[in-house]
Amino acid sequence: MARAAAGKPKLRMTGLALAALAGIVLLRWGALSRQKDPAIGQAALEHVRELTAFGPRPPDSPAHRNMQRTIVGKAEAAGWTVEQDRFTADTPVGPTPMNNIVAKRKGRSPRVIVLATHYDTKLVREFRFVGANDGGSGTGLLLALAPVLAKRNFNHSLWLVWLDGEEAFREWSDTDSLYGSRHMAAKLKAEGTAAQIGALVLVDMIGDRDLDIRRETNSTPWLTDLIWRVARRLGHDDHFVNSSHTIADDHLPFLAAGIPSVDLIDFNYGPNHRYWHTAEDTLDKVSAQSLQVMSDVLLEVVAELDRQ
Ligand SMILES: [Zn+2]
Questions:
Q1: How far, CA to CA in Å, does 123 sit from each of 60, 65, 106, 270?
Q2: Residue 31 in domain
Q3: Per-residue pLDDT reduced to its tens digit, 206-254
Q4: 249 C-alpha vs ligand 1 centroid, how far in Å?
Q5: How far is the centre of ligand 1, averaged over its atoms, from the C-alpha of 281 (Å)?
Q6: How far is the CA of 121 from the centre of ligand 1 (A)?
Q7: Structural domain tally of the chain?
Q8: Span from the CA of 151 to the centroid of ligand 1 (angstroms)
């Protein structure tokens, strides 16, 4: 009896402790799931479907101009203030008009968080290159995030950036590549606004069915760590793996301008990277599930950066 009597309050204590634990777990789950929006993956895929239907979208093509109108129209409809920065790039195929599109949402603090991608597709004359993943997936994801982010409250300002001219016209080199990001980074530096940007998260080729994002070695370490921590917390560490790679992409000019930047890219596209820059980079290779994983992580990352 004495043992049972002593046992009863202990049981009650355990019950209380369990209830408290369940409460904490629920609160924590609530805090995490508040950022998520389960409809974004599918919405992003629908945007990718629409833009790949435009056909190849190299700078200064009719489809590229359609793409610009589409991005501006959708971002404005979602409530963003959209700026277009038109410039002429000196390329191996001659002077080429380009346009960086920046959707802005003003916060209470002067600090800016940037989500960026490129919307051009590589100029290919030998076959029809529609860049569903390369140029398409990031563009579609940012378009799907736009209406969701527009409705949320943030302390910092938020920019969604669709960069032009990421691709080389001939051979990739320092001068034949990254036209849009080099132009924008130089402009931010000249204006003195580069210092206001707290973080820039670049997404490129993130729609692959077999999503495998590795740490990119040029990227800012604390920002990479923050993203991998978030991915692990959300249970997405099977997609955000712990190996690393080194990629030249649109984050480089921003890093050179002193802006903390990270490149999220799955540069293992298809068996032996077979779909990259080929006629096989088509809509069927892109998955709503992968876009959803990216959305889950990005929404949580933005919320976390906003608390800094
Ligand atoms: Zn490419």
A1: 10, 14, 35, 21
A2: no
A3: 999 999 999 999 999 999 999 999 999 999 999 999 999 999 999 999 9
A4: 9
A5: 10
A6: 7
A7: 1
A8: 32
